[in-house]
Write the structure tokens for this entry.
Amino acid sequence: MQEEKLLFYKKLGIKLTPQRLAILEYLENNREHPSAEDIYNALKDKFPSMSFSTVYNTLEVLTKKGLVKELGIDSYKRRYDPEVHPHHHFLCKKCGKILDIKSKYEISIPLELKDYQIVDFQIVFYGLCPKCK
Ligand SMILES: [Zn+2]
Ligand SMILES: [Zn+2]
């Protein structure tokens, strides 16, 4: 990982252990929207001493610092997205694949929310991916 990046995490007050670095590296540019289990399974061979709670705690820290977004759209497990800029998703109901949708959608704010401040919204398409169709 580049020096710049390391400094960035340090400035945010994120303690960098080798395991945490591995988790950060795994998430970087990862478009699969992995779950904590996925990350754990991908790294446990390289870091046999790493526990599942290390992965989970790291994800919590990263979420709190705004470096990762927690996705609640998969009802089976929480998924994590390192792309924190607003975008939309497609979820395959069969294999659980989550695809980023970068198209812009113009929506009108519903009347019920006229007194609320909206900071974000997300459109989720549910269906079957080409492989599962
Ligand atoms: Zn699928
Ligand atoms: Zn995404």
The beta strands are 69-71, 79-81, 88-92, 98-101, 124-127.
